[in-house]
Amino acid sequence: MKTVGIPRSLFYYYYKDLWEDFFNALNISYIVSPKTNNLIMNKGLKIADSEMCLSLKNYLGHIDYLKDKCDYILVPRISNFKNDNQTCTNFWAAYDIIKNLFDIKILNYNIDLEKGQTLKKGLYKIGKTLNKKPFQIKRAYKYAITKEKKRLKKNHQINQNKLKLKKTKILLVGHPYNLYDELIGKDIIKYLIKNNIEIIYSDKFNPKITGPLSKKISKDLYFKYSKDNLGAIIYCQNQINGLIFISSFPCAPDSLANELAMRKIKIPYLNLVIDDSTSFTGIETRLESFLDMLGGKLND
Known about the structure:
Helices cover 52% and strands 14% of the residues. A 4-stranded parallel sheet has the order 2-1-3-5, sandwiched between helices. A 4-stranded parallel sheet has the order 8-7-9-10, with helices on both faces. Helix 5 crosses helix 6. It starts with a strand and ends with a helix.
């Protein structure tokens, strides 16, 4: 049986549950690379171009980890979700970068709604590539997408309910591949939880609501995930005590979108830009100061 490798980085944090449900329903064997660690990050740093963001460097490290452990590595290309909803150029280019840097078999599909290339068509393509029958693929897709919709609805409700709690609430603004990565955002989350902070996540709101709200910060922004993040700020700004931006250096969309937000928002914020040399000791000091400042604000 062929085995598919799934890098635990970038796309993984958007599609991991959907992919796993789809592969499980088709009885396809897969492995997921481990949580990002120093070995994976350092390997990615050696392979990557110096101008790549830390998230993409980590992604290359995960590819390298998987290259000898599976028959295919899943590397989608995600271009746009139509109507000025573009993704980061790394999401467009990842497939070509991997193809040129590694001698591996790539399991690939495209999402480009402007050209009619949908997630459904992409997963059907994967099923066909792995020699599954059309009725099997159809059944697996329906199973996976149904579970995904329920999962997203539940996450949206949990995030929504947190806004009603009478606790110090901080909105974490960032992409999931940064927020939940072991070496980028996880220690920040652990620190906030340890200090009894209720964390609201910018990626866990309904994008049909947050996307349009981003226009209150910028009418011209066309990065889909950045619009979702900025819209989350607008959506809950009157129900939170502060917010923390988390991005990886040097992310162009974040440097633009976050700067636009910081110029217009009226609530306390902390901007954390993480690179491969960032020490959590320094981050912890800044977090401590930020929480102290929020405490003062709450007591005013």
